[in-house]
Structures
1.
Amino acid sequence: MYNNMYVVFHRSHIKTLEESFQRREARLQDETELLITQHNEKLRMLDTEKSDIQTSNMRKITMLETSKEAEVERLKELHRKTIDVMRQEHEEEVAHLRKLKVLISAFLVSLMELAFLKSFPLSICSSFLFHCFISLKPPITFLGILRLSMK
């Protein structure tokens, strides 16, 4: 009878242990499923956040590239305008220098003509004195002086 009781007790103990292990297994399985669900939800949330950050970053990059391109175009246009202004100023300066060159040439020609005109009376006088010295006859009139200087 002790054996029988021992067997019954042992079976009941095993049954209790099995039920305890089944409950523990069920509880652990529930906890595992809950953790898997939580991790999956967290993973989805992180993926969504990652996607949002990537989208935001791409939008910022696009805006910066657009801004940079606009700034480059603005600088190119400013450079073109500056070059045009400098080219125009250069052409005006060249034209001004050409005018000055013409004026200087005209001035030099005038100076040479003036020098010639200043030397002309001297040549008339020297020619007159030369003729007077040779002929020893002084011319009487201004017309005579001119005729002598024309020879």
2.
Amino acid sequence: MLRVLLAGAGPFVDGLQPHDAHQAPHAVRASKGAVVNTASVAGLGLRSSSLAYAASKAGLINMTTNLARALAPDARVNAVAPGFVETAWTKNWPAERQASSRARSLMQRGSKPEDIADVIIFLCAGTSMINGETIKVDGGLVL
């Protein structure tokens, strides 16, 4: 699981090695664009249902920071870290688990996929000075 979740971060990192991260693929640098990884609050130390999942998301957050260093100033790399998201998968959770997840959020509700998408769009197109950051989209769950 750990390998799959980290490897899924993007094929553009395949050629990067710790000692030559400055040699990021030309297409990413030439894009002058943005990369946004999808992490999780589990990667920030919030309790998770899976050790491998939490570890992979922590690794993705670390990779985001290091790729931001490697690709700057040509491209920006950030991550979003969702908390409880109301999806078809979480809809099948027991009612008590859903209620508990909502209650732990300061907003008293789960995020919707659109909430996550809004932040991704902002990081891609709405700013040019945010780089190497992981933005929590959790309604205050981690606070």
3.
Amino acid sequence: MKLRGFVFVAMGLLALAATAVQTRGCGIPSESPSEKSSPDAARERLAALWVGLHGVDPRGEPVEMAFFLNVPEETVAFFAERIPTARKPKPGEVESLIEELGSVDFPRRAKASAALETWHRMARPAVQSALYRKMPLEKQRRLEQLVHKMDDIGRCPEILRQKNAVWILYKLNTVAARGLLRQWAAGAPEAYLTREAKDRLASLEKPAR
């Protein structure tokens, strides 16, 4: 009787052990998601942070700058994709974008507004001139808001993203970061991005006294 009871107990323990092994093998990952790191994961994180890159902290530095600095290679590649070297608008290009501000399609209006913000000073005279034309009230309101943004970069997200991207590259100060700054500094002279990149690059390349 005692022997039979011992056998039952032993069989129960073996069954529990087998179940535990199966659980560990099938249900529990060997590495938690927070421990995983890859270029793809970094790019996804950078893309998420890009939306808020127009903000600054109380010290005047870009928000979330720490993550950009922790993945220098991915950061430089990401900025190179997102921020092209500034160019002058083609003839009629600004006027065409101004017309798009009257579109009933929101994505088209948003894209046009972002492009005009990016050109900043190069587009402002045409935007200001357009205000004197007769147009629907809603379109006029959008143009007025755009002029106010162009007059105060603190209200212009596209320009602030450029400013903060240049600052991050300046802080990285790697060969690749300086290379991208040189590329941006060779853009249209009137562009904000060009002037900002030139200033930061000059600071980096200034001979030490």
